[in-house]
Recover the amino acids of this structure.
């Protein structure tokens, strides 16, 4: 049995692809324990990476996150930063243009996207 697996009481000799929610929860629990260690060993770090890969693969298949529209991304960024339409008016030229975008009556243009990505320190790709 792998020493790290033994130490963290995983019931398998080597981590294998996740096939159940129970197994997923077990792997997440172990990964949380490893992540909370102040000075993990090299073996523990490698083990955590394997668990992370298996967890991500399971979650992508069983708990997919749908892509957000550019407007949904903009709304989320505004909410996360406690911003109102008037706060972003300089980027759009006016509050009314932003209002039209937020109500899907108008689309973000290249200039808006460049300024928004700069303002929020995100890749322009999040708006596509």
């Amino acid at each position: 049995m792998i020493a790290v697996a033994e130490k963290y009481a995983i019931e398998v000799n080597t981590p294998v692809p996740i096939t159940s929610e129970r197994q997923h929860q077990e792997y997440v629990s172990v990964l949380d324990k490893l992540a909370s260690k102040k000075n993990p060993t090299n073996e523990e770090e490698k083990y955590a990476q394997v668990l992370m890969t298996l967890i991500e693969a399971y979650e992508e298949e069983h708990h997919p996150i749908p892509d957000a529209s550019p407007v949904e991304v903009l709304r989320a960024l505004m909410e996360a930063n406690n911003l109102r339409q008037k706060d972003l008016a300089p980027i759009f030229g006016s509050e009314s243009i932003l209002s039209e975008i937020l109500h899907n009556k108008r689309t973000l243009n290249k200039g808006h996207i460049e300024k928004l990505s700069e303002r929020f320190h995100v890749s322009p790709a999040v708006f596509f």
